[in-house]
Amino acid sequence: MQIGWCTINCRFNQEEGVGDTHNSYAYDGNRVRKWNVTTTNYGKAWAAGDIVSCLIDLDAGALSFCLNGVSLGTAFENLSRGPGTAYFPAISLSFKESVAFNFGSRPLRYPVAGYRPLQDPPRADLVRAQRLLGCFRAVLSVELDPVEGRLLEKESSEWQVQGQPTVLLTLAHIFQRFAPLLRKVYLVESVLTSFLLGLVEAGGPEQAPAAVGQVLDLLWLFMEEYEVHDCLKQLMMALLRLYRFSPIVPDLSLQIHHLRLTVAILRHDKSRKFLLSSVLFDALRSAVFFHIKSPLRVEEAGLQQLIPTTWWPPHPGKEGKDSKEVKEETAEERLRRRAYERGCQRLKKRIEVVEELQVQILKLLLNNKDENGGEASRYIFLTKFRKFLQENASGRGNIPLLCPPEYMVCFLHRLISALRCYWDEYKASNPHASVSEEAYVPPQVFYNGKVDYFDQQRLGGLLSHLRKTLKDDLASKANILIDPLELQAATMDDLDEDQEPSPAAAQRPVQALAIGGALPLPRPGWLSSPTLGRANRFLSTAAVTLMTPRRPLSASEKVKVRTLSAEQRTREDIEGGPWNEGLLLGRPPEEPEQPLTENSLLEVLDGAVMMYNLSVHQQLGKMVGVSDDVNEYAMALRNTEDKLRRCPKRRKDILEELTKSQKVFSEKLDHLSRRLAWVHATVYSQEKMSDIYWLLRVCLRTIEHADRTGPLFAFTPEFYLNVAINSYSALKNYFGPVHSMEELPGYEETLTRLAAILAKHFADTRIVGTDIRDSLMQALASYVCYPHSLRAVERIPEEQRIAMVRSLLAPYEQRPWAQTNWILVRLWKGCGFGYRYTRLPHLLKIKPEDANLPSLQKPCPSILLQQHMADLLRQDPDVAPSFLNSVLNQLNWAFSEFIGMIQEIQQAVERLERNFVDTRQLKVCATCFDLSVSLLRVLEMTITLVPEVFLDSTQPTSEMLLQRLAQLLNQVLNRVTAERNLFDRVVTLWLPGLESVDHYPILVAVTGILVRLLVHGPASGTEKATSVLLADPCFQLRSIRYLLGHPEPPGPGAAPPAPDRKRFSLQSYTDYISSEELAQVEQMLAHLTSASAQAAAASLPTSEEDLCPICYAHPISAVFQPCGHKSCKACINQHLMNNKDCFFCKATIESVEDWRAGGASNTSSAA
């Protein structure tokens, strides 16, 4: 943003703005520079909510700026002047930037002596208004002593007009002239607002609202309604500007005074209802009143006085307290920390005063006891609040409608405080209701059409689709009947915009029926009327009502109710009444009959959950940037201090530069640590953490109750699952290290409940949205990375654990399998061969600073879930073949893609012309490599847990699976272990993006599988695995020797390897591979060497005619029936896994028989 002045001759475009042309001058507080074609340093950094004064003196030819009333000095001199030269205010804005101008239509916040605004103030009206206000005040502040007959002065707290004719007549004359003036913006802000602020400052907490209320009573009494409306609108807009643009002072007194006046005005019932109806959510952003802006300049905000001693907390890994050892704190650090914490407490207490006033505002807006013949404030608020949510949910492209995320965060916390207060008040007067700690949203709210969810996606898909497919479940479980014919008629009739409904028809229920008792009741004729379509225009979801039976009602039957859109609802439509459940219409049998609380509070709760999903979570993550900056500067300061200690005394030039750097880093850390204190007090305090935790528990209960409704669970909005996942992530990652989630009440229970939800619903067929399914899968994958959350998964009921593992073992085809495979890998990591590392060993050598990345977690395998997996693979004969076949298919694809990509990368690097490898291609290549490694680890886990799946000859698919496994293992070994091959060359290039590609991760995974097959298995299984491995034509013993660093014997005429060439060897990784594991590899090598020699001596030459025509690797051993074509068993068994047609003639294969040279045997198997 560049703001300043320009002449009419300036021409601006997308590249050149104010200050970039000859006769334009600008100040940019973001970059702290001034601009006039060239640029130089100038002024101070500005922040959102600051006020910039742009001053131009054409007599002196000078231009200057002020920031919040403080002069920044002369910016430009010798301006061009003369006939025909005129300067105009100008500004250049970037995307999403906004600014409010004041050319004099309102009083200047910081007037400057000797300068005038572009628009002169209404001086005559201002003088009249001040005189009339003086008369008004004089009438209120004096009274006639009936005894002595003299005037007595009264305090503002004692102002009362008790119908005295003389006083009322005098006030009527004053307001006859005063009322027209109070409609003008300048006069309201300059005269009335200042007067009311004076009353608030002079009075106490009880006296000030009474005095302001007395003034408002008189305004409503003596002014016309339209005049009061204009006056109150301008008054609230002035207060909002004053609050938003007030500078932050140490005691926050300015913000407190403006909020106290706002509270006093809203205590007036009539004024509050008007402001709610027409101003707070329509003419202005009322969420501004709930925001506490963060100071960019801590010295001006007084934080240096509040927090004289600075300190910065250590930055632990996201795994929590167990992630690494905490360095012992010195005595000096302890003193600094305690002084810093005392300063933070002082700051927090001052902020709490502001927050309490903001909560009072929301309590007034949620008041439902102020009907007084009209609508209570709470129900007006609900209508406006729902519209506010809709604008922010569906108007994302329309920037003016959006509430900034930082405002939304504060608004949510204040709303939760007010909501829980009213919830617990209701519980105090209704013992059968629930406390706020047990709050949730009943599932019927999601499908009875009482609450508008506009375009929010449901778990089961589109609402119109759900109403059609689940209409029978709605009728049987919730007594709600939706007629598709009426819905279709309503859609067609909705196109008719001209015909108006009759008065009788306008009061009829619409579009859907909810009935209690017997369903086959007479169908009223009005269901086919055009009224149905007209009423549907006001409903974004299915309208639901109770049909009135044509017979006397018993005490247990429900009466007819009417559902309207949010704008047309009344208190009875929300809270219900006799024979009317309001928002709780359509209660399923699983839900309790006793209501939780007032129905209106349930809708507020639902809106709070939606608010978190809209932008609060993203803002919480964004504010962590301050903490990250502190950590980066703290690390830089420590490194600089280490260099200072190591620097020789004689190098004074280096010492001087290091000292300067140390000073810069220290000053920046002092500034950031005070800003961090502000952020922790306003965003990451213990109270804010408790709010997010409460919201998490609300979502968990809501999902649990909705799940009990069976198929009706599909009506639940997606954002409930999103908020449950994201709020847990925020509590775990954003609020530390000052506050820990483990300190929250019921922490272990909450973790277990969330684990149960993730385990059950990540593969729930009732959830159809791709994004939400991916979110559930990713959340579960993250959940099993941490010991405390993994233990929570192990605590869920056994049947849920088994169902979760069964879903994980489903075939990988036609579903997103990468995350599923990652979950299985995390359950195994720590148990596999050489698989106990946190960071890949080769990365620790080249990037040791990356070892402490918070995303790297220590291995935490789950023996319990591994056992469930083993039981399922053993007990269900269909699970293991389908699962392992899909894993082998994906491994074949992933490794083939990886090899193809590194070939392209190698070719690009070897070209003579300068080529840049696409970073996206590098990323995809590394991803395919990581997938290959993870798939190999899953195979290792499967072989370890249930080796009989591959080695038991009695299982029909074991031989085929073992042959496929041997083929893939030999393929991987040959590609990776060949000397000076493609893989070697790409690894040695150290291309950015391919850091994870190395010999170690993939070779230890393959070694783990071979060791399990050839060393740990039973004798019969080892013999079978050995024969299959050696029978594969791709097997090379040198690949096994390569694992232990044994050089490959040079071929005839080949040059011997260079003696200084560094060779890969598992023996070089003794920190990661135990001596027992190395011994097992040596044992495997000796076994294969012996078996290979014996196989070579016993093998007989095979003619080409007897080889399989498909692979040319094995002799023909199977004949297909009825066509009679032949191949080896390995080829036909693998083919029949996915296809039943013959390789050659495409005839359907009915059976496969054994075949030997010289004749066929009688052994056969069905295809």
UniProtKB/TrEMBL annotation:
Quote the EC number: 2.3.2.27
Q: Which InterPro entries has this protein been placed in?
A: B30.2/SPRY, B30.2/SPRY_sf, ConA-like_dom_sf, RNF123/RKP/RSPRY1, SPRY_dom, TPR_RNF123/RKP, Znf_RING, Znf_RING/FYVE/PHD
One cellular component term from this protein's GO annotations in UniProt = cytoplasm
Where does the RING-type domain lie?
A: 1108-1146
Q: Which domain of life is it from?
A: Eukaryota
Catalytic reaction list: S-ubiquitinyl-[E2 ubiquitin-conjugating enzyme]-L-cysteine + [acceptor protein]-L-lysine = [E2 ubiquitin-conjugating enzyme]-L-cysteine + N(6)-ubiquitinyl-[acceptor protein]-L-lysine
Protein name (record): RING-type E3 ubiquitin transferase
Native source species: Myotis myotis (Greater mouse-eared bat)
